[in-house]
Amino acid sequence: MEHITLSFPATRTVSGKALAGVVGSGDMEVLFTATQGDILTIAITTSVDNSEQRWKALFERLGALSSIPAGQMQIHDFGATPGVARIRIEQVFEEVSHA
């Protein structure tokens, strides 16, 4: 298991918590808790070694396409494809946008 910690500038604030995915599904789980401030901190536990660059690229793309909320995110990844990872992350961002 690899543990990765990333931080990205946040461009909006939201409130609440959100969960997407189920870690036991062989996929991935994303937990998000909104915070005040201007940083999104991400803690990733993944079964895929040497994947830090892939995760950085994914969040850079998300930031270029939409606004990233301030908060803390935990990702438990067990080999999800980049497409599934993006969907799960966008799901929690969408859920807290409507909280």
From TrEMBL:
<comment type="function">
    <text>Subunit of malonate decarboxylase, it is an acyl carrier protein to which acetyl and malonyl thioester residues are bound via a 2'-(5''-phosphoribosyl)-3'-dephospho-CoA prosthetic group and turn over during the catalytic mechanism.</text>
</comment>
<dbReference type="GO" id="GO:0000036">
    <property type="term" value="F:acyl carrier activity"/>
</dbReference>
<keyword id="KW-0963">Cytoplasm</keyword>
<feature type="modified residue" description="O-(phosphoribosyl dephospho-coenzyme A)serine">
    <location>
        <position position="25"/>
    </location>
</feature>
<dbReference type="InterPro" id="IPR009662">
    <property type="entry name" value="Malonate_deCO2ase_dsu"/>
</dbReference>
<dbReference type="GO" id="GO:0005737">
    <property type="term" value="C:cytoplasm"/>
</dbReference>
<dbReference type="Pfam" id="PF06857">
    <property type="entry name" value="ACP"/>
</dbReference>
<protein>
    <recommendedName>
        <fullName>Malonate decarboxylase acyl carrier protein</fullName>
    </recommendedName>
</protein>
<keyword id="KW-0597">Phosphoprotein</keyword>
<dbReference type="InterPro" id="IPR023439">
    <property type="entry name" value="Mal_deCO2ase/Cit_lyase_ACP"/>
</dbReference>
<comment type="similarity">
    <text>Belongs to the MdcC family.</text>
</comment>
